[in-house]
C-alpha cells in the first residue's frame, strides 16, 4: 500500500517526504500514536499534506477520485499546476 501511495504522488509530480516506521527506532511508538489518533488498527500508510492529517490510503484515494487531492497539494505548495 505504501508503494501505491508513493507512485500516485510521484505520478502527479509530487515529491513526498516518506517516513518508514519500520526503519525508525521510534516507529512502533509513532504507529501506536497514529492508531489512537485515527481510531483504527490499520494506519500504514497514513498521509499528511501540509502538516494536515488526510488519513489512510482509502481517504487519499477518495480525495483523488473526487478531485479534492490536487487542491490540497496545491495549497500545501507540493504541486505547481
Automatic annotation (TrEMBL):
Give the UniProt subcellular location, in the record's own words: Cytoplasm
Q: Does this entry carry the keyword Iron-sulfur? A: no
What family is reported?
A: Belongs to the glutaredoxin family. CC-type subfamily.
Q: What is this protein called?
A: Glutaredoxin domain-containing protein
User: Which PROSITE patterns does the record associate with it?
Assistant: GLUTAREDOXIN_2
- What Gene Ontology cellular-component terms does the record carry? cytoplasm
Q: Which UniProt keywords apply?
A: Cytoplasm, Redox-active center
Q: Which domain of life is it from?
A: Eukaryota
Q: Glutaredoxin domain spans which residues?
A: 1-54
Amino acid at each position: 500500500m505504501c508503494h501505491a501511495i508513493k507512485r500516485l504522488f510521484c505520478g502527479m509530480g509530487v515529491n513526498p517526504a516518506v517516513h518508514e516506521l519500520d526503519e525508525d527506532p521510534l516507529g512502533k511508538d509513532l504507529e501506536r500514536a497514529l492508531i489512537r489518533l485515527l481510531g483504527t488498527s490499520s494506519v500504514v500508510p497514513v498521509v499528511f499534506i501540509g502538516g494536515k492529517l488526510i488519513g489512510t490510503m482509502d481517504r487519499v484515494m477518495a480525495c483523488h477520485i473526487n478531485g479534492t487531492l490536487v487542491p490540497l497539494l496545491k495549497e500545501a505548495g507540493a504541486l505547481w499546476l
